[in-house]
Amino acid sequence: MIDFSYSTEATINASPQAIFDIVSNPSKHVELAGSGEINKITQEPAGPIGTGTHLAAEETVKMADGSTMDISADSVVVTHDPPNSFSWIVNPALGEQIRRMQWWFHMSPQGSGTKVVHEVEVDWGNIQNEMLKGLRDNYEQVRAGIVRGGMAKTLENLKRMAER
């Protein structure tokens, strides 16, 4: 069951490949992430990125009340389809593993530019941890606005980076 999902899009004056090259490059994610929450990304193994590549992130996650929480998250790339789509599943280091948190970028030519769709889905699964249940049950008030705003800013950052 999907507990939270959101999608936003923008048209960027750059080719799908140029945009794919940015969104699929972990070294650009600190600059790309509109939330400002990503502090560092490490790729394993080093070398070309592809399906199965692991990404370790150090993040400072923000809540709607202004509080923050430092976490680490392990991600795995699940879609690497240049220049069309890039997706990864995140496993944040929390009190209990959630079922699935997945992010996407989809690119398609549109006129002389590219339509970029940025999506997220969160499926909390059958969590037992009380703190995580509280976060899940109050996600709209506690975190959803931060996520939506961060995704919009991510597309603004992507536009700026791609149109340089």
Can I get a quick summary?
By secondary structure, this protein is α+β, with helices and mostly antiparallel strands.
Protein architecture, described:
With 164 residues, the chain is an alpha+beta fold. It has one domain: START domain (Alpha-D-Glucose-1,6-Bisphosphate, Chain A, domain 4), CATH 3.30.530. Helix content is 27%, strand content 42%. A seven-stranded antiparallel β-sheet has the order 1-7-6-5-4-3-2. The mean pLDDT is 95.
The helix/strand series, from N terminus to C terminus, equals EHHEEEEEEHH
Give the low-confidence spans: none
User: What profile does the largest beta sheet have?
Assistant: 7 strands, antiparallel
Would you report the number of β strands?
Answer: 7
**H/I helix tally:** 4
- What is the name of the CATH topology? Alpha-D-Glucose-1,6-Bisphosphate, Chain A, domain 4
Structural class: alpha+beta
Instruction: Give the terminus-to-terminus CA distance.
Output: 40 Å
CATH class: Alpha Beta
| CATH architecture designation | 2-Layer Sandwich
CA radius of gyration is 16 Å
Q: Indicate the percent of residues in helices.
A: 25-40%
Please state the overall shape, judged from the principal axes of the Cα atoms: globular
CATH superfamily: START domain
Task: Work out the strand percent.
Answer: 35-45%
Mean of residue pLDDT values: 95
Number of domains as seen in the coordinates: 1
Order of the strands making up the biggest sheet = 1-7-6-5-4-3-2
